[in-house]
Amino acid sequence: MNPRSLSVPCTGRQLWRSAALSAAVLALFLSPSIFGVPSATAEVQAPVASRSAAPWWKQAVVYEIYPRSFQDSNGDGIGDLNGITSRLGYLQGLGVDAIWIAPMYPSPQVDFGYDISNYEAVDPQYGTLADMDRLIAEGKKLHVRIVLDMVLNHTSDKHQWFIEASSSRTDPKHDWYVWNDGIAADAPGVTDYQKRFEHDGRVPPNNWVSGFGGSAWEWVPAVHQFYYHEFYKQQPDLNWRNPAVEKAMFGAMQFWLDRGVAGFRLDAIPNLFEDPLLHNNPELGGINAQGDPNVGDTYTNNLPEVHDVIRRMRAMVAKYPGDRVLIGETYLPNTAELDKWYGGAAHNELQLPMDMLIGFHGDHDKLDADSFRQHIEEVQTLVHGSQPLIVFDNHDNVRAIDRYGDGVHDDLINKTLATTLFTTKATALMYYGEELGMHTTTPTRREDVRDPIGITGWPKQKGRDGERTPMQWTAGPQAGFSTNPQTWLPIPPSYKTVNVAVESRDPNSELNWFKQLSALRRDLPALQSGAMTMLDTDNHSVLAYVRSTGSGASVVVAMNFTATPQTVTLNLSGTGITAHSVKTLAADDDSLKTVTTLDNITLPPFASWVGSVQ
Ligand code: GLC
Ligand code: CA
């Protein structure tokens, strides 16, 4: 039923698709920039003074914004770019170095922006190009860089390219997409499933299933052919075997790089290529929430050809000054596969492919010290010295606080995840609302669902609305998100207590914990670049490690991953660090604020302690 419960490597959309399934289970319970448009040679950002010379993204905190849900500035109930600009001060205060904005390009909004109909403009519901230029310019003043979401795998079916491509087989754009004549419905071996999608006596050529339900092949009568779509049928896949596609897409990226964006988050990037021989994907048995047979993705995901494109992309982006960055949405089965996305020893592909193995590692994500230790060690050691990017939350999955939470200590568990995120040797990627402990608020009635997979999958799959609810700023109307009572998704009832205003005033809040940790990370060389050594490695209940640059203060971190108190003695012998003086830098329990020795530290349930050792 759930790909993650099967003993097959799971990758890509499968992972969050199944996470959405778990959600069902969980549910039970100013004018254009005054600087003008930056030229291709404009510097993106001056580095923050307190930082070392390493590229900015190595020590960065990157914050994902779902633009519909962050801040509405014009009262239509939908977040927008001017809303984001108005909140840059908040982001700077949180220690955010860059924001990744989910797609804000013109779109029919079938997949809320992941179906793009024009790559070189802004959807009017989010603002204008001038608003984007202003966001980039204002961000620059506050050292908040702008990273855009780039959807290269597919366009909207309303994109001019597809309109032309699907008009005739001889149209010059026809070969920009993935077409197939299909096979005769009465050919030997055709399955009942294929027959479900019969048109004019033809059926899809194989068993490829869309991640969003139904066959991945859609019939177009005008050309008497099927086109391939990994996602919704309104998201036809581009044919990356055609060099014109690469040229057009790199051109779109350059359009934004020229305007001064700091880089891109590459959507569904392992999906660019499909098997040209159209082999069937492996049958896994059973039926998924959308009513389709469970199949693997051997022939539709993570094909080796993609790496040639990524190397050329890296070379293209590297021509721009200011350390522009490529971040990848890389759900992969293991760290060895992840390493390939960095370009292995050559370091010539993505700077930051996301490690989804720590934050989204299983069916029942739970705090497990052994598994965290193992995964964190792996991503530090098996990627040829590349920089890990750790992430626990995004717009496709039940929020981490709900996946990892136990329903009793959720706030402490959220703090523990934050401690892991900010103190390991990794770039940190977070999702709006994570810093507040916002929970997933899944719709309870099908008629309220907005995400199409939640409508077609109801009630087994309720979609992704729950993790996309409006940001909770205040205890006032619409949580300060909008002046309009009709917000695009409802404001969760928790907003009265879980919001920026209330949490800013509470020194023990989740928000202040995130702020404290990001400030430590910004200020302490050991946390910026220090090597990481695991401590007390046989301990199944406590995750502990030390970060050290070899000179100056080291930073020791200890987190209790259980609901019972744990006493630990952290032995630094063998690390070359001598601990004369120990003091607490941050602790989420008062009893830990006076720790002066690494012997017999008693960590209350789910407590985090961060100390300096000199
Ligand atoms: C990625 C996005 C997801 C989107 C899909 C298709 O997985 O994160 O939100 O639906 O790609 O673009
Ligand atoms: Ca708006």
Overview of the molecule:
The chain has 614 residues and is α/β, with parallel strands linked by helices. It has 3 domains: 23-153 and 243-433 and 449-490, TIM Barrel (Alpha-Beta Barrel); 160-228, Oligo-1,6-glucosidase, Domain 2 (Oligo-1,6-glucosidase, domain 2); 531-613, Golgi alpha-mannosidase II (Immunoglobulin-like), CATH 2.60.40. Helix content is 25%, strand content 15%. The strands form 6 sheets. Strands 13-12-9-3-2-1-15-14 form an 8-stranded parallel β-sheet. It has a 5-stranded antiparallel β-sheet with strand order 16-17-18-22-20. A hairpin with a 6-residue loop joins strand 16 (531-535) and strand 17 (542-548). Helix 7 (243-258) runs parallel beside helix 8 and helix 13 packs parallel to helix 16 (510-523). The radius of gyration is 24 Å and the shape is globular. The chain starts with 11 loop residues before the first helix and ends with a strand. The protein binds alpha-D-glucopyranose (GLC) and calcium ion (CA). Residues 72-74, 76, 78, 80 line the site of calcium ion.
TL;DR?
The chain has 614 residues and is α/β, with parallel strands linked by helices. It has 3 domains: 364 residues, Glycosidases (TIM Barrel), CATH 3.20.20.80; 69 residues, Alpha-Beta Complex (Oligo-1,6-glucosidase, domain 2), CATH 3.90.400; 83 residues, Golgi alpha-mannosidase II (Immunoglobulin-like, Sandwich), CATH 2.60.40.1180.
